[in-house]
Amino acid sequence: MIKQYRKKQIFIKAIQYLTENTLDIYRLLSRNENATYEDIWTSGDNFLIDFCNGTGVLGDLLIKSGSGHIRCRPGDWITEDSKGCIYPYDNDTFKKLFDEWEFGSFEGNTSVRSLELIANYHEAIVNGEQKLIDKTADELTKHLSILEKRIKRLENHIMKIDSTIIETGEK
User: Which of the listed residues 97, 131, 156 is the one where a domain comes to its end?
Assistant: First the structure.
């Protein structure tokens, strides 16, 4: 029997490589959210910045991967998946593969973060990564507790609206 399948939803972090966002690019690649301009080096564990033959003009990035270096040019996108793997995409390919998640940042939106955690939890189970399973389960439990409280508040709000409608006779 032929069945239909869909690709599993994944969440990524991404930033477009532009000459004016060097610090943000460095923070993603170095995995140091607190980095300052003084911290910027031309290379790290997973990247190398090519300064255009010593001209001092920001040029291509070389992203280190398991299969060698992948060139990332200004205008390309740099992504980080749930396992921390960094991969660049040219702008056209990125736009075809990814849609911006409009509900806010992963950290700032509990619902979005919970969806990301569920996807990561499933992936960790499939791959048998017990450490990641435990870490994700703990964080997911906290997020689900927050969501339960929000649902309860919404239910209470709806009950108040319903009682107001009954009292006023509105339909």
Answer: 97
